[in-house]
Specification:
Blueprint: E1 7-18, E2 24-34, E3 40-44, E4 58-61, E5 66-69, E6 71-76, H1 89-98, E7 101-106, H2 118-128, E8 135-138, E9 140-141, H3 147-156, E10 161-164, H4 178-188, E11 194-198, H5 229-235, H6 238-251, E12 259-262, H7 271-279, E13 284-289, H8 290-294, H9 316-327, E14 333-337, H10 373-376, H11 404-417, H12 426-440, E15 458-468, E16 487-497, E17 500-504
Parallel strand pairs: 1-4, 1-5, 6-7, 7-8, 9-10, 10-11, 11-12, 12-13, 13-14
Antiparallel strand pairs: 1-2, 2-3, 5-15, 15-16, 16-17
Length: about 525
Amino acid sequence: MSSTEALTVLVSTRAVLTLPDDSLLLTPASISISSTTGKIVAIVATVLPKTSFPSNTTYINHGSKLLIPGLVDAHVHLNEPGRTEWEGFNTGTRAAASGGVTTVVDMPLNAIPPTTTLAGFNEKLAASRDQCWVDVGFYGGVIPGNADELLPLVEAGVRGFKGFLIESGVEEFPAISSADIELAMKTLDGTPTTLMFHAEMIPPITDSVGDAVQVSQPPLAPKGTLKEYQTFLESRPPSFETYAIEEILSLAHLAANLHLHIVHLSATQAIPILKEARDRGVNITAETCFHYLGLAAEGVEDGDCRYKCCPPIREQINQDGLWDELQAEDSCIKTIVSDHSPCTPELKLLPPHLQTPDSHPNMHHSDSGVDMRADLELEPKPPVASSEGDFFAAWGGISSVGLGLPILHSSAKKRAAAGHKSTPTIVDIVRLCSQATAKQVGLSHRKGALKVGMDADICVFDDTEEWVLQSRGMHWKNRCSPWEGHHFTGRVKETWLRGHKVFEHGGANAGFIGMMPMGEAIVEKRIA
């Protein structure tokens, strides 16, 4: 560092630092940032006065507000190009920045084309140019017939690959069979990447498919009113997740040198299966999501399809089990992500009291094979007057990118007040949402830590401010989310990306004070 180089110094009585052994420490800190490189160049574990630095230093004292590494949200659907009415790089990354997320990793669907070919990846990169408010990495997809595209995508810099064991809901991203999984594992074994799975699959004997399980068929036939959340929940039982995971593990011996990962784990019944496999030496991990930790089936109003996602939000007892596992010393759940999967409000089929007057469904689709009215039409039925509130016909996905930190902090605070032992601290949240997510996508050499040499990606968090999320406070494209109206304790006040402040709550331009996006596409080849 040049002696004349201008520095930015952020100080606080509370910062979560990463030590040389990768352990985390909550401590006072003064963090010096290079204005040239955007890297952290020095950290002192105390609050130094402004006089300790050159006169041209930009010195900001955040008092007791928390300084933590920017979150790395390793599961986000930005949907561009192709479905930009659902979301896009500009709006999705603005929402991320507003919540202290400095890196997102974009899923290979629901963009058109999906990121299943090198050509499709290049189209996505072109669409992202000059639009991103935070840094963006990318996953590739595994679909039937694209095995020859996987290694070129590794070379092009994708952070990992995702495949579905059940229909994804969009025709351009079909489900994979056991043969496809085997081929992907053999192709990717030994490469520095992660092979991820949407782990839902039909058990061998069900009402809807009998013994046909080589390719997943639609879920269990509903046994109740389609507007009742309980009907939807029962149509996707925990056995869907456990059976899929057992199928993946049955093939894991083919990829002894490949990291396997289960996305958006919902059912706690899968935890002992994963732990037993890990004990046998299988390199497999799981993530769970903010909505599985902050929402429960008991709180879902019939017809409120904002809560629909797959796998589903399960009962409170299941949520308690997820929190317990997060705190277990040998936990198989290593990360927490948003799985931000938005759509237009019309596709949520909301009943009148939850929708705008002109919201009407205008698109038929199959969400993970869920439009069960097709199955019900096997025998004549009276005509359905309206699909409003139909959990089986509505699109499944929760909008929440940028909300993860207040969700987790608020939920942990409530659990502590209720006497629960499984209450993560801010240090745990940093480990699960920054440090471990960066490692999951091969970015731990520059992201997810407050440490010298790292990108100066910093979140300033006021863990005492209380607020309620209103529609106008949503920064993603379609202001439709089950989190609307929820009360939170803890708010992101500033977000810094590579040494530049990109968001300030209450600031000009709706807080996006940089005025122009400065995020970058992360296309460096993964090496770890």
